[in-house]
Amino acid sequence: MSVYLLSILVCDRPSFRLPTIIIAICYLAVLMVAAPATYAASYDEYLHPNGQVNHKAKSKTFLPLRIYPYYIEEHIHLPPAYNQALRQWIIPQAIHKISSILSSTLPLRYLKLQSCLVRHQIGKNKGKCAMIDPLPCGTFAKFTIPADHTDLTEICPDSDDITTCFTMGTHHHGLANTDYIWYIFAKEVEACKYAAAFASTCVESDDGRPLAGYVNFCHKTFETVNKFSMLNVAVHELLHALGFSDRYMRRFKDINGKSFNAIRTFYRRGEKIQKLISPRVVKMARVHFNCSALDGVELENDGMHQGSHWEMRILHGDIMTAAPPSEVGSAVAISTITLAAMEDSGFYFANYSAADQFLYGKDRGCQFIASSCSATQSTYPYSCQPNKLKYGCSPDMKSTGICTKNAYLDGCHIYKSVKSCQYSKSSKGSCGQSYSPNSQCFINTLSPIAAFQTAPMGGCFYYNCIKDNVTNRLAISLNYSGSVLWCLKEKQHIRISGYGCYGYLICPSLRHACVGRIKTGMIPSDALQFESGNPTSIIARHTQIIFLIATVTASIMANLMVLFVLMYQIKTITNILMINFIIGNCLIAALIIPFQISVLIHQKWIFGPVWCNIHAFITGIVISCQPINLTIISLTRFYSLRQNISSDSIYSNRVAILLLIIIWSISTVIPFTPVIGLSIYVYDFAIKDCIHDWRLDSGLSFAFLFNFCICCIASSIIYIIINHRYKHGTYDQLQIIITKAHVAVFCTTCLYSSPYYIVVFLGIFLASISDTAYYLSLLGLFLNCVISPIMYAIFIGMLEVPFLKILLSIWQRHDKIQKSL
Questions:
Q1: Do the beta carbons of residue 428 and residue 434 sit within 8 Å?
Q2: Residues of the chain with pLDDT > 90: what percent?
Q3: b/e map of 640-669 (b: 16 or more CB within 10 Å)?
Q4: What distance in Å separates the CA atoms of residue 159 and residue 165, rounded to the nearest whole number?
Q5: Residue 49 CB contacts under 8 Å (≥ 6 apart), including other chains
Q6: In this predicted model, what pLDDT tens digit does every residue of 649-671 receive, in sequence order?
Q7: Which of 223, 200, 183 is nearest to 6 (CA)?
Q8: What is the sign, positive or negative, of the torsion defined by CA atoms of 508, 512, 516, 522?
Q9: pTM of the entire structure?
Q10: d(CA 445, CA 383)
Q11: Structural domains in the chain?
């Protein structure tokens, strides 16, 4: 008995649980009415491959399994559209699919079912029928198999008295060229509350071969899933009716025709599990998983699906898991492992060349089979964490996905298909996404320039697989916004920009993505640049490393030199704040840039997620500290000039300490602010790496600009208030002129940062057409850490004193005017 649960009714709601008693009662009830009976069949003639009759030998040539569908009209209750889809597409397609992959080991010339229930074991009438049964089939007691499907039966009530024998039924040839009869129902029954469809075998031969079975489709199934998913439901149930169930697995046939129990019990981490250990299944599974030590394929261990389905954790997407994916575009496959199970039953030959492409767990090794979803990403790569990376790609990479779980994944979270990359009403999507049969899901961070989405997610892109004619190297090429991008290895990061969007793209497993897609050609030499830490950078990786090392060295030297000069005048508040600014630059050189260098050298983050987060937090503090620090310097200088004092000795040490506390407190709060708290590094749990994204540098630039604008706006308000007081209060025109001069001094003081702001701000708007922002951010880093302190010292020394002289001369001139009056 098989019950195919609707994923949208049960699987999507992991918290939904029926009371145990209801499940047990429902299961037993369906089992009692649906359990197959063993009846004799008249199949004394078998087709030989050449068309002749062979009475004994099994066929060794593949002949498509011939399945005859019989619609039970009185038990098909569907609207006309659904009824038409069932008869004209779903059932024919399901039969065509199965016929292309299975062949009967004893193909029949005619199929006639016999209704004998019990045969005599002794006496003169040994082997003859003692009792008949009207051959019920399905879950409906009123339905019996039609008479024209059954054979004339001789019945002998007494085992020794030949004279008691009589015949019943009508003599006929039976169903010509038929190996199996499939009775089709579509009626709402009690079991439909929990199932989309269910099926079983009705009639077997004396040796246990399935000859007839049924399927019942529940009405709600047609309303909740698409026609492709309905086809998968039909194929799934037909395989159950043909013998894919624990009842048949316990009496598979070996090569000599003897029955054996192919289910074996094992214990894993203290938990009882069952595996199918038949020879072909083990052989195919060892090849698929690349595990020579595999001793069997695990069966489902959940409730009423136990034993009759594959364990979804290791074979997700196979047609014979308890709840194959039902979303549009989801890849549901009849794998070679499922075909091996059908062949190991002893009743069929399998056409392995017609098996579907099935990549889940492909070549993942023995650890994948034995591991749980809590294992490392390298061991169980399909697991996801909804609180870390909610949106990604489905396991087959053919759809975008959302991280979720269901009752059959042993608690694992994987990406459930949301939108197919191959089937869509529109061929184009946002940020240059493409939907076509040649598209696949790639993890990326693409988003519009105005957006601040930092978390990677799945997106659909058209791609080609190229195998180099000379080197035999495999690569994926993507055409994006007029540029050709190259994936040369798994988890490689490619910076991309275009269509008004920017971000990076993570390359998938080339071996899995290119199955059946490989074309021979030539990989251009410039594609190798994509393997560097910054794949689209024209500057080579070693050049970037040298540049960053030079930046660190020059920054430390320049800042220490300025610090050495300022130490002689440390009593002034401006110098104290300037020293604080220099300390920030040194922290950038010592705690931020070296990790960028490490990522470039190792091509990955080697310091773990904890330090990634700490590093991001420190970065946010330091970059926020600098503009705030300069704002305070500007305001203190303004106040000093406002008082017409050449030094700021009026400030006490307490005031200096208070200002430093304010600066670092505000800088510490900013990284927690969602508007401007954007870190340079984000730890991506999908690939266990701390990703450096230039787009986050753009966010960093916005944070600088945001702080800078706030500083300017706040200071301007102060100046406006002061000017207002001068104009309408007791101050004269002279002090208005002085105030304007003070504004000029403030602007000069803040001018130090203009190269950095201009450079990065320009990069933001060039990002959609090139990678200019990345190079400009490197240049901006150099300007900020090396040139800024020197420029500041020059501006303070060269401009402030002349301004003071101008102010004094104006004051003296004003004093002379007053005396002359």
A1: yes
A2: 17
A3: bbeeeeeebeebeeeebeebbeebbebbee
A4: 9
A5: 59, 61, 63
A6: 445 677 888 888 988 888 887 66
A7: 223
A8: positive
A9: 0.64
A10: 20
A11: 1-92+103-229 (no CATH), 243-413 (3.90.132.10), 421-531 (no CATH), 541-820 (1.20.1070.10)
